[in-house]
Design goal:
Length: 358
Amino acid sequence: MSEATVWSDLPGELLDHIANGLFSKVELLRFRSICKTFRSAVDSDKNFLDHLKRNRRRLLSPYSSGKTCSLSPAAFYRVVLSSYPDKGWLIKLQDAYVSSQKQLLSPLSRFSIKSSGKTLDLLEFTVSEIHQSYDVEYLYYNSTRASFNFARVVLAEDFVFIVDNYKKIWLCNSNESDSHWVRIMDEEVKLFSDIVFHKGYMYALDLTGAVWWISLSEFGIFQFGPSSTPMDYCDIDECKDKRFVEYCGDLCIVHRFSRKFRIKRVDIDMTVGFKVYKMDEELVEYVEVKSLGDKAFVMATDSCFSVLAREYYGCLENSIYFTEQNNVKVFKLGDGSITNMVDSSFQSCFQMLIPPLV
């Protein structure tokens, strides 16, 4: 039987790496109070360089009609009561333009949440960053900013990759103000639904569900794995969207499908389900993931990721949280049902999205 690791025996390099991911000076104080080794390994006036680099706004080269644009980061955080850290809430924050304060966003979209005037007391709550997302904005009328509403924006090293509204991939160097946007495509495949930076590599997902690898040195694109993911939707009308999600270390592909419903004499596409696939390395093909186990997927408009359901209030295992027409919904893989947040009788399963500071 292997011996348990003593906290004070952890190497200084690892402690410094952990400290770089902390959210605030209060968390740093808690970290340094664990033991003498932790205090000596990390300075009390440490700057959060990694956090600042990921979350800083960057001016980008003009995109589309010469509009000045910038990279707008946001981050997802798990917020827990320091006295009860087992369960928490999911929030999304970004830096405000005109002050050093944080702006609270709707977790599944980029819409701002009106401030209630409450403050987040970091002595009462513990905040941990769990995921990063990005948007590209442009200068609009009267010095305001608006989003391009790209399908996806990813930062890989200093390169900004986007999937635009026409399903084309573009990139530019965020460190070079005169860097032009360059299109990434293959001779045969030119349109894509998603991109992701996974374990140091950039991947793209085309409209058939095939995965492509993008070289960060030459910016060439090469097919990676099978030519497509299964499309056996039976009586489903349309595969509405395909997205990457990191799940248990694997890169999964999520198909979102819809049907047309006639509501008040208008035909509206409504999501009716999801299917999840991952690569079977032995069979060299994509296989359907029937259950997410104790995990849940968060399908935000600007990013997709998985969470451990039991760590969040009301979060349902084996489910997918998503937004549609400004409504938050949850799809249960077990029975294929969809619950809408506006239905007050099911509020408990959305509790993780309603922190006490709202």
